[in-house]
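Researcher: I need the complex structure. Ligand is flavin-adenine dinucleotide. Inputs:
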Amino acid sequence: MASSCLIPAHFIVFFIVSRLMSIIGKSRRSNDSLTSEIDSFGVRAKLRYDLEATGLSSSDYGNIVQEIPSAVLFPTSIDDIIELIKFSNKCPVPFNVAARGHGHSTRGQATAHNGVVVNMLSLKKHYKNGSGIKVSTSGNYADVGGEQLWIDVLNATLQHGLAPVSWTDYLYLTVGGTLSNAGISGQTFLYGPQISNILEMDVITGKGDFMTCSRGKNSELFYAVLGGLGQFGIITRARILLAKAPKRVKWVRMLYSDFSIFTRDQEHLISIKGLEYLEGSVMMDYTPANNWRSSFFSPAHESQISSLLKKHGILYCLDMVKYYDDEIVNSVDKEVEMLQDRLNYIPGFAFMKDQTYADFLNRVRRGEITLKSKGLWDVPHPWLNLFVPKSCIMDFNAGVFVGIIHRQKITTGPLLIYPTTRIKWDDRMSAVIPDEDIFYCVGLLRSGSFNDWQDLDNQNNEILEFCDRAGIKMKQYLPHYKSKEEWMKHFGSKWNTFQERKAQFDPRMILSPGQRIFNAV
Ligand code: FAD
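Model: Output:
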């Protein structure tokens, strides 16, 4: 009982009025039954108002935004979520609803100020024996709950010798959470983002309608939801394309001091056949060669690289990966060598790892565990993720990596940069990318402290202003904006469609208010 004292008074009134409206509404139905009342009561019993529940759902991995919801729904079935959204729609003033996957957004995107957060992971507990992930008997897809973590998808599909083809670098993210953005990693150039590898979905729209959608059925909803920033519906099932899983990988990291040679080699590698993963990163002389996300180098190599860094100030790392299994175990080294032969990295600065496919995909987890043990995981993360057109990447390097980040020497955390291809994206989906055929994924994955994160965010703003001034037509990935004008600019020619889809699937603008698109100031 004590916990109900924590509910703001206006919300108690709002909930009582809403509840009455709901009951009145139901009593008008011809077959108003006890069952529907029990259903409704069921949802109420799954709502928590206490500070423990609302507090945990008020922030995210970013630790920058805090928006306290009025309640958190811990659903035990999809019907609970439908009930909640329908309930909100019946209210004279609907309350907001935000699905929260694993809360790994960085700007409060999964929060719902004064609304209800749906704790999607709660669904996971109610499936027995991992039945939230079902691999089809034909073996070319898996039906996966939107609340499932990608690590669990990997483990479940590997048991059948299969796996999805497109990944994120880190696997403790939910399927619904990454499909709301795009889901990118070093495989994107070859297979497209995760949203390009979805065959079908079940979605609860902002009206509370449960709909199955695909390219051929309810396609408008299908395209809206993929990359749709949670604005049109809550994904409860995604049918994910699978392929035969390789057993092991050869992972090669090569160092460059010249950015133009580095990007030329990256672009060459994504234009040929032969490898399955390509990424890259930037190293600065004021940070160690290894970072929390990747401890690739041995101590001996680290000191070698430190000397090189002292000489050049900035180095660029190219990461390429070749998958292999028993069939090519004898030829894989030769194939990797042949790929390397065409590259122009600094002689002597190529490093190789050979590991299982599963360990490679789950490579960021080790860093997470180490950071958690040092209390450095739950710190502010003012990340900035950009898609930069190929034609501007030299200007971007000069202006941002050299001119801002290296000069100011305040950034800590991985700086990722790798090219990918537009052709693997479907423009009918809501995700936004630059117009050019090749564009670079840039991730400034900064960790700050509660005292200094603002300095890093000021640097983000400086970078965005630089891009504006230099005419670099980049797009933000995992975007966050403050005004409607900025959102309109972000979506460009897709804005009208985005708005129309919102009117169609979430006309009362209930879903994912933390994105601040339709409720921007
Ligand atoms: P949440 O933060 O919980 O939610 C994100 C948004 O999606 C919210 O608006 C929420 O309302 C909505 N949402 C959540 N579940 C659903 C659902 N079922 N249906 C509809 N909407 C829903 N991204 C990449 O693409 N590639 C990477 O390599 C990558 N690496 C990362 C590494 C780390 C350490 C972190 C913290 C993030 C990384 N991300 C990466 C970003 C990540 O993909 C997004 O932040 C993603 O949204 C996080 O998933 P989540 O389950 O935590 O979503």
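Model: Summary of the prediction. DSSP finds 18 helices and 18 strands in the chain.
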